[in-house]
Amino acid sequence: MTAKGRRIWVRSIGEAVRDAAGKIIRLQGAFQDISEQKAAEAHMLALEARLITTLESITDGFYLVDKDWKFIYLNGPAERMLKRRREDLLDKNLWQEFPEAAGTRIEREFHLTVKEQRTARFEAFYQPLDTWFDFHAYPTAAGLAVYFQDTTQRRTEQAQLRLLETAVSRLNDIVVIMEAEPFDEQGRRIVFVNDAFEHHTGYSREDAIGNTPRLLWGPKTQRAELDRIRAAMTKWQAVRTEIVIYTKAGKELWLEIDIAPIADESGKFTHWVAVERDITERRQQQQEILSLNSELEERVLLRTAQLAAANKELESFAYSVSHDLRSPLNTVDGFSQLLLKIDGEHVSEKGKHYLERIGVGVKQMGTLIEGLLTLAHLSCEQIKSEKVDLSAVARRIEQDCRGREPEREAQVHIQDGLSAHGDPRLLSAVFQNLLANAWKFTSRQLLARIDVGSELGADGDTIFLSKITAPGLTWPSHTNFLAPSNAFIRLGISPEPALGWPP
């Protein structure tokens, strides 16, 4: 990137300069701007790709040989006409791969073209393929470029046409050939149909030939599609459509139709060929799928409504249970406190211990009730995903903990810049549990340290950690939590400082 913000390609070279003791004292080197060279290379690659695309798209066979008569390139039509794969011919000698051409006019003309640096056009017969070829040979800097076409005699072409007509008649797809003109409302007259036409439509060849495709139209044949077909044919463009036609017995059929113009040797369009496939069963299946999808959507909506009702019932149940539990819980707590206040002098030490345990149990039960209400509340709200400042969440929880126990002297170190994408409420609840547990487990330790931070896991995910360090503190396990941000949050407790992180 230059000072003006322009991106350039450079070639760099450098070396280390050492002093007498072999110590590197500086690095020196140079840069060379090769942007123009890179641009030229890209341009050449683009031209080469465009040339190959053009050669692959033409109908002529084409191959290129070097000055040693080795194949450098062949296109797809060349493979088909020569009945050889290009992988088998590339870098192979032309005369070794086609020895029957040696000594023929093909070899003589090719050698003269290279020797005299002139263009040659000639027709020659190649015995192994029983084919006549029309060759166009051009000398190049690399060697020789050859275009060729199959020009086998008309009598063999006629035999192939008869064979083709027989093969088309045996296809499962419907084939209809129509005259190219006239363009009128009646349509183009049919000149050929195959056996599949008779089988699918019920009309005989005699019914179809001389008639027009209007023969197959009916009440549900789409007028808009007919107009689209006509517009494309007016411009001599191929067209594909799906349309309803009717059999001779009046049965509806869905056909997928490909229509294309056919031109003669002069380029004049003489006929239209239509290949038609019966897709009635496929259309029925598509309609069934649409119906099933609609039914599935209704079921999803019903299940969603049922789930919402269940969540609402859960929330109502949670509030009801919490209310019913709080009343006797407050009674137990109140009477135990009242007992200590009124008759505390007559209560034994063991009795006071039991009353203290009752108080602890009341507090724990209160915490469970609050958790139940929080769970019910969260389950009824939609989960949101947004960027959450976890460092700020952790500091807020720390302040809450210190507010409840201001006499605690625990050290809490929270890493700056902790963030994740997820639901702020759920992430806050997870961190609340992690830090509250850490705060609770160090409540009896005079010198306790809680570290909150992150690190990269083995799979590249971010792991958020809350670690406790305190003399003599042991905890034999750790717990993993999966946050809505798809990041793992891990609570690890160990009696010794962690190595590396935290510091």
Tags for this model:
503 residues; alpha+beta; Beta-Lactamase; Helix Hairpins; 4 domains; five-stranded antiparallel sheet; 13 helices; disordered C terminus
Describe the model.
- This protein has 503 residues and is an alpha+beta fold.
- The protein folds into four domains: 41-152, PAS domain (Beta-Lactamase, 2-Layer Sandwich), CATH 3.30.450; 156-278, PAS domain (Beta-Lactamase, 2-Layer Sandwich); 284-378, Helix Hairpins (Orthogonal Bundle); 384-493.
- The chain is built from 13 helices and 19 strands.
- It has helices spanning 35-57, 76-82, 86-89, 94-97, 105-116, 154-169, 195-201, 205-208, 223-234, 280-343, 349-379, 390-404, 424-441, and strands spanning 10-18, 24-33, 61-66, 71-74, 120-126, 131-139, 143-150, 174-179, 190-193, 239-246, 252-263, 269-278, 386-389, 411-414, 419-422, 449-456, 462-469, 479-482, 488-493.
- The strands form five sheets. It has a five-stranded antiparallel β-sheet with strand order 4-3-7-6-5. Strands 9-8-12-11-10 form a five-stranded antiparallel β-sheet, sandwiched between helices. Strands 14-16-17-19-18 form a five-stranded mixed β-sheet, with helices on one face.
- Strand 18 (479-482) and strand 19 form a beta hairpin.
- Helix 10 (280-343) packs antiparallel against helix 11 (349-379) and helix 12 crosses helix 13 (424-441).
- The protein starts with 9 loop residues before the first strand and ends in a 10-residue tail after the last strand.
- 17% of the residues are buried.
- Mean pLDDT is 79; it is low at 474-503.
